Amino acid sequence: MLNLFDKETLVSADKALVGRDEAMQIAEPHVILKNPLTLSADELVEQGLSQALFGLGCFWGAEKHFWSLPGVHTTAAGYAGGFTTNPTYQEVCSGQTGHTEVVWLAFDPIQLSYERLLKEFWQAHNPTQGMRQGNDKGTQYRSAIYAYSDAQIQAAEQSKTHYQTMLKEQEHPVITTEIKTAPQFYYAEDYHQQYLAKNPDGYCGLGGTGVCY
């Protein structure tokens, strides 16, 4: 087990756990939205849906926040941004995968814009805390926006600049959110999917700065 200092330092590719070939098995459909949790690129196009991928701390509360928005078709908890193939929760928590906890979502861009999702992202958590989110400490809790297009990258960068201005006015630190092209998304274990729907009194570490976008 790594100590806390190591868990707040990103592991390098050559030292990360290898992982496995078998993908995580999850149940369908979404507990709340009743739509599939898995959609291929072709299915997204056929249904006129767009996708987004965000990391904002523990994925339990983050997923609930996004599935509650009108226009969201489905959501899933998972891992991304690291090196380990098909990681387990225990491996991600060890700090030896490089992954952060994320929420993947498919949404109807006619009902819900990507810009609105970015606003929700910034306001729902504290994007200035580096390798932690509140009391949750470790690289797996870092803030991240993983974009599926150049347009999403541009929108994310512009929204970051805007929100940094808002934060600076309230004397908050610099945003540490990483913005990158979307890497491979790995589904988390089935018990993590829609966790707060299955466990209404479960832990939710989601909390923003109080600064409006």
TrEMBL record:
SUPFAM superfamilies: Peptide methionine sulfoxide reductase
GO molecular function, one term: peptide-methionine (S)-S-oxide reductase activity
Reaction equation(s) it catalyzes: [thioredoxin]-disulfide + L-methionine + H2O = L-methionine (S)-S-oxide + [thioredoxin]-dithiol; L-methionyl-[protein] + [thioredoxin]-disulfide + H2O = L-methionyl-(S)-S-oxide-[protein] + [thioredoxin]-dithiol
InterPro entries: Met_Sox_Rdtase_MsrA_dom, Met_Sox_Rdtase_MsrA_sf, MsrA_MetSO_reductase
Active-site residues per Swiss-Prot or TrEMBL entry: C58
Matching Pfam families: PMSR (PF01625)
UniProt-listed GO biological process terms: cellular response to oxidative stress
Keywords for this protein: Oxidoreductase
Annotated ranges, domain Peptide methionine sulphoxide reductase MsrA: 51-204
Main EC class the enzyme belongs to: oxidoreductase
Protein EC: 1.8.4.11
Domain of life, per lineage: Bacteria
Record-level GO cellular component terms: cytoplasm
Record's function text: Has an important function as a repair enzyme for proteins that have been inactivated by oxidation. Catalyzes the reversible oxidation-reduction of methionine sulfoxide in proteins to methionine.
Matching PANTHER family: MITOCHONDRIAL PEPTIDE METHIONINE SULFOXIDE REDUCTASE
UniProt similarity note: Belongs to the MsrA Met sulfoxide reductase family.
Protein name, as recorded: Peptide methionine sulfoxide reductase MsrA
Source organism (scientific name): SAR86 cluster bacterium
